[in-house]
Amino acid sequence: MPFELLKTDTNTKARLGRISTPHGDVLTPAFMPDATRGAVQTISSRQLRDTGTPMLVSNTVHLYLKPGHELIGSFGGLHKFMQWDGPILTDGGGFQIYSLIHSSNLKGKVTEQGMYFQSPSDGSSHLLTPELSQEVQFALGADIKMAFDDCVHTDVTSKKNRESVELTTLWSRRARKRFDELSEATGQTSEIYAIVQGGADLELRKKSFDELHAIGFDGYAYGGWPVDSEGNFLEDLIGYTADLMPLKKPRYAMGVGTPSDVVRSVALGYDLFDCVLPTRNARHGYFYTSEGILRIKKQEYREDQRPLDSECDCYTCRTYSRAYLRHLYNVGEHLAGTLGTIHNLRYYARLMERIRFAIQDGTYERLTRQIRAWAI
């Protein structure tokens, strides 16, 4: 059984579950750090495993561009290429191309066939289709593959939003067909999840889900931005989308997020999460601790002999002082990013352990209040 629902919290919609993959089981709720280009920045796969991280997200578009999915496939897939023995989820590519088109001067175009885009490294032109997206993900050997979708911001026009939903349905149907063909041809055991679009329009959200559900997928994800233009968590929209999804299928809140938003999304019924925040913030000396946020570059930590977090059991907290870490960051030592990333990922792993224990113990609502009080 690929997904087993073990328990549901009595006071919220939080769920305890287990996802089974060829590379091991993942207890949910679970957080996946981004190994965008086949690595979580600044740390090795062994260090990553030591943080208690159960699963990774890797980027289909970037690995397609460099070093190329054929090369990775010749090594036996991404697991062997990066020496990671745990499960891997790969994205479909829609959001990444959207980001490339809208955050740079690179040209791009969305058509019924797929997405045209330029490489950020050399400007070369490419077309990613729903079929090619699956072919790349099969070469990478991902345990969970995402269908190709058309991502739009929550504030787009109604016409553009509706077109996005129509394209997402069309592309997802084609992705499902190619996934089934490649599964049979390669004998590869994996699953495919679909991404529910619709922006902030509830009717379009329901239309998107209903059409994807009719096609049939192994799991479903919230697509689009989890926050508004001012950074406020879109709790009502995200909760509405979760309520559309089947009870006995995994629910993935893509791009969520801060510890507080993860805890709130778990209460809404989501099982999987990913975000760049813990690793990106670590590289800038911004740490999550049991007492809230700690910004290590501040002068007040210059002579501080304490660990980052006295309650944390990570290698960084067991070994180094705040004063030493502050010194590393302030002189630009690369070791700073490594030690910081180890801590933040261990914080997230421990947070998810606490979440699962609280659901099992019937105390999840209390944990929600504690985490939200920290405003992190």
From TrEMBL:
Pfam families: TGT. The active site is at D91 (proton acceptor), D274 (nucleophile). It comes from the Bacteria. It is an enzyme of class 2 (transferase). HAMAP family: Q_tRNA_Tgt (MF_00168). Homodimer. Within each dimer, one monomer is responsible for RNA recognition and catalysis, while the other monomer binds to the replacement base PreQ1. This is Queuine tRNA-ribosyltransferase.
